[in-house]
Each structure stands twice: as structure tokens, then as C-alpha cells.
Design a protein that fits this description.
The structure is a single chain. By secondary structure, the protein is α/β, with parallel strands linked by helices. 32% of the residues lie in helices and 12% in strands. The strands form 5 sheets. Strands 1-2-3 form a 3-stranded parallel β-sheet, covered by helices on one side. α6 links the parallel β4 and β5. α5 packs parallel to α6 and α6 runs parallel beside α8. The protein starts with 6 loop residues before the first helix and ends in a 7-residue tail after the last helix.
Length: 415
């Protein structure tokens, strides 16, 4: 299943995945039009380049993905959205498309509103709740054959667990989730990643249940936090060099007459993304969602992790109500061999290790963890099993090469 939330990144791999793309769970209603815009752009592209269809196996009328509505609010608390990045789709009547305002800059990409309710040649549009659609699909496909990819808040998955937890525990093949920040700063607050910040109560219900046999099957769950996704980037200079030499920013909008429909579409929504990333001091888009989709493609259900992929179990809890720390993952380091001594400067330790050619993992240090004296609890509290977190991938350059090849048909050799 493919869940669409952070569409600025995930549209790039919408049709080029090999996992079963059977349902797309939507949150704001107007975001449905973004999916239809993507299909329309590809239809135009295939009219001009029919041989390119082979790269997009899920653009088909034989096995239509289902486009359903997801949860509109978190399990508890106020609604939060990444308006600063995706466009002010909740408050601005003009620039509320969730794609950085392409409706204003590129009206040629708009689709008539009535098509949102018409029969679509490649999509099943339904008014059924996405939770129900997802559970039906998990029931109907062979046991443990479906991969569920969560690219946004875990609200829908939490609702699915409440409504059909036994079905998921018995039948889901694998769940791949992009979310959280363990040992790196957050991207929405100093300590929290957006997806977990938006609904920390769902994270608690889904991943950290202390009720025996009531939570997710964590042996089939893979988490990709910011720690591993952030280093995977699409440098905009590489996009200009390899895909669209005329790509610039909203100051110089993409022109449909100068390039293929697919390149015009991707350049149109990347224009604003580039400006936002430059305001953060980086001329590249971080491939958080795409890294998670890549992980799902490379690691199908029922298999061990593919070569060059590594994971380790991490024990953490999540802050749900803190004024400053909502969505923060509180890692239990008391029994963690990768912990640092109290007061140690992690950057300095890593630099010294590099000087001495001491091998270390992405979050690890060979420095001995300090022995911390803790008071014994009067009552023994049940421990939540650790969550498997991806700690190594084949590399950022390998993902970039994969992305260029699968989406745009451009061969770029990984370094």
C-alpha cells in the first residue's frame, strides 16, 4: 500500500515502485487533486513518449490503485500541518494546493474539479474511509504479502489497529515507516520530526503498547528516522545537470513548451521546494519519504534485510504533551551500548574516532558507556520491545541513481 502525505517528495516515485500500490490514503480533500494532476501529467507524457510506460508499472487500468480519504485529525490534540513546506493549503484559498502553490504559477497543470468524482481510467476514487479500504485489502491479499508504507502521521495505522488489530497482526507482511528523530535534531521543533510531532498519541498506541499481544508485530516493522533519511538528498544542481537544464525557482517558472510533460510537472513543484531548502541553507531536497519507499522496494515481506541494509533495535518512548518537547523520542540509553558518557561531546568523540580509523555506525560510538546508578522501581514495569530502526542503506548516491533511472529514465552511475 502506498500512503501519500509529504507529496513534494513522494510524487517522484509514485508509479515506479514494485511493491503493491493498492491504496493511497489522503488527508485534506484538496490533496486528492494532486494525485489526479500526477496521473494527468503522466498521461500527457506517455502520449508523447509511449515507450516510457515500462518504467511506471502501476500506471494501469487493470489493477487500479484505490484513492481513499484518511483521518482528518490526530487521535488527540490539535491538528498540525507542514504548511511552511508544502504550501498553505489550509488557510490560503489560492496557494493551498499542498504543492507549494503550483496552482497559481502553473494553471496549465490544473484539472477540472468535476474529474475528482468521475470514473478515472487508472484510479478507483472512493468515499469509503481509508482505514476500511486498507483493512479490506489486507484481508483480500495473500497472508503477509502486503507492505504498508507510512509516510505521514500514524493516525490511520492507529485507527486500523483499533478497528482490526488482529487482522493486521495475522496478515500484514511488513510495515515501513518514515518518522521520528533519535539522535539528531528534529525538523519541526528542535527535538521532533513532523510525522511524530503531528500525532504522538498514534505513535504511542501503535509502537509502544505495553498490552501483551495488542500492538503491532514489531518484528515486521521498520522505522526510518531522520537519522538515516536526512543524508539522502537530491541536489538541485544534479537535477539541473541531469534532468532539466532550465530549472531555476519560482522566479523563473518552468515552461511546458521547453520540456517533456513529466519534467515540466516535477520542475513545477520543485521550484518552491528549492527556495524553501535554500532558506534553510541547503540547495538540495532531503529524500525522507523516498528513502522509505526505496527501503520497502528493496526489502519485501518475508525476507531478511537485503545486503547493505542494516537495522538495530532501539528502545524509546515518545513525549505527547510537552510544551516544548511534543513528538520527541526519549531513547532509553541505560542499557544501550551505543550510549556516550554523560557530558561527552558527541561530535568531538566521532572526530577522534575518525582520526584513529576506528569504525563506528551511524549512531554508534566505541566510547564506553558510563555506568549510571538508577533507583530500583518498587513495581516492575513491563518493557516495550525495541523498534527496528534502519541504520545503514546502500548509500545516498545509490538512491539518487535509482531515482533518476526509475522516474526520469536517466542513467547516473553511483559513486
Amino acid at each position: 500500500m502506498y500512503r501519500n502525505t509529504d507529496i513534494n517528495a513522494s510524487l517522484l516515485v509514485w508509479f515506479s515502485v514494485d511493491v503493491c500500490v493498492s491504496v493511497t490514503l489522503k488527508t485534506p480533500l484538496l490533496r486528492r487533486s494532486n494525485v489526479l494532476k500526477t496521473y494527468e501529467a503522466l498521461a500527457r507524457h506517455f502520449d508523447k513518449n509511449p515507450t516510457h510506460r515500462d518504467r511506471f508499472p502501476n500506471f494501469s487500468s487493470k489493477n487500479k490503485p484505490i484513492l481513499a480519504k484518511g483521518s482528518h485529525t490526530p487521535l488527540k490534540g490539535d491538528l498540525h500541518s507542514a504548511q511552511y513546506f508544502h504550501g498553505r493549503y489550509l488557510t490560503d484559498p489560492v496557494n493551498r494546493d499542498g504543492l507549494g502553490g503550483i496552482s497559481e504559477r502553473h494553471p496549465e497543470l490544473d484539472i477540472p474539479l468535476q474529474t475528482m468524482s468521475e470514473d478515472h481510467p487508472q484510479l478507483q476514487l472512493t468515499e469509503k474511509p481509508g482505514v476500511d479500504v486498507a483493512l479490506e485489502l489486507i484481508r483480500s491479499y495473500p497472508q503477509r504479502s502486503i507492505t504498508y508504507i507510512a509516510l505521514g502521521p500514524l493516525t490511520n495505522l492507529a485507527c486500523m489497529m483499533q478497528k482490526g488489530g488482529d487482522i493486521i497482526r495475522e496478515r500484514i507482511g511488513r510495515i515501513v515507516c518514515m518518522g521520528g528523530a533519535l539522535d539528531v535534531p528534529g525538523n519541526t521543533s528542535p527535538v521532533a520530526e513532523f510525522n511524530f510531532f503531528a500525532d504522538p498519541f498514534a505513535v504511542k498506541d501503535v509502537l509502544l503498547s505495553l498490552e501483551p499481544h495488542s500492538g503491532l508485530p514489531l518484528d515486521r516493522f521498520l522505522l526510518l528516522p531522520l537519522d538515516i533519511t536526512t543524508p539522502h538528498e537530491l541536489p538541485f544542481q544534479a537535477y539541473t545537470d541531469q534532468i532539466d537544464p532550465s530549472f531555476h525557482s519560482t522566479a523563473v517558472p518552468s515552461s511546458a513548451s521547453e520540456k517533456s510533460p513529466l519534467v515540466h510537472f516535477t520542475s513545477s513543484f520543485l521550484e518552491r521546494t528549492r527556495e524553501i531548502m535554500l532558506s534553510f541553507g541547503k540547495d538540495a531536497m532531503e529524500l525522507h519519504d523516498i528513502a522509505a519507499v526505496w527501503c520497502a522496494i528493496e526489502n519485501p515481506p518475508g525476507c531478511e534485510l537485503s545486503p547493505s541494509w542494516k537495522a538495530r533495535s532501539k528502545i524509546f518512548d515518545i513525549e505527547r504533551t510537552g510544551e516544548l518537547t511534543r513528538g520527541m523520542l526519549v531513547v532509553d540509553r541505560r542499557e544501550d551500548e551505543s550510549a556516550y558518557s554523560p557530558g561527552a561531546n558527541r561530535a568531538e568523540i566521532q572526530a577522534e574516532m575518525d582520526k584513529k580509523n576506528i569504525k563506528h555506525g551511524i549512531w554508534e560510538s566505541s566510547a564506553l558507556p558510563a555506568q549510571v546508578e538508577t533507583e530500583e522501581d518498587t513495581k516492575v514495569k513491563p518493557k516495550c520491545p525495541g523498534v527496528l530502526c534502519i541504520t545503514e542503506t546502500p548509500g545516498a548516491d545509490v538512491l539518487l541513481s535509482f531515482l533518476f533511472r526509475r522516474v526520469w529514465g536517466v542513467e547516473v552511475t553511483a559513486k
